[in-house]
Amino acid sequence: MLNALLKQHDESLPEVPEGIVFPITTTEDLEAMNEKLHDSRLMSIVIAKVADIGGSSLNDATRRMMRFLISNELAIQYNLFGRHGKKRFRDLCLFDVICGGLKKNAMTKTVNQKDIEKALSKWFTGARDRCGKRAIRSQQSSGL
Question: Where would I find the DUF4806 domain in this sequence (predicted)?
């Protein structure tokens, strides 16, 4: 019975088309993906894939979804509103993917756009400290 349920779950989740690769690692790939996501069919598939990642809270789900979608190296170049010389994430189709994914997640389906923006801003703020970069910065500042 469990195998039947798992098989049904696998069949209900559409496959991301060939050539669509996550996480996105370059600005060029992000811009290309943004263009591709104007196709509503692809947008629906990616939203379903991201929603399936899940999360137990808004911040947890946002973190898990964003880690799936874009690399940390790319995240460092962006913030939600494009302030401080960074690129603006808010206008990209991936913002709509995250919103759609969070709305489909049972644990986060009642969140509003302001809550989503706050969680994304928090995630982007932490980008420079992920992957051991906080320890490196700490060592450099203590060595001065």
Answer: 18-93
- Give the integer Cα–Cα distance in Å for 25 and 7: 31
- Dump pLDDT digits (tens) for 8-47: 555 577 788 899 999 999 999 999 999 999 999 999 999 9
Q: Confirm whether 85 is domain-assigned.
A: yes
Angle at 110 between CA 106 and CA 113, to 5 degrees: 125
Is 18 within the bounds of a domain?
A: no
Q: For the chain, how many structural domains are there in total?
A: 1
Which residue type is seen at 35?
A: E
Compute φ and ψ for 89, nearest 5 degrees.
-85, -30
Instruction: Tell me which residue range forms the domain holding 63.
Output: 23-142
Residue 32 within a domain: yes
User: 73-96: per-residue pLDDT in tens?
Assistant: 999 999 999 999 999 999 999 999
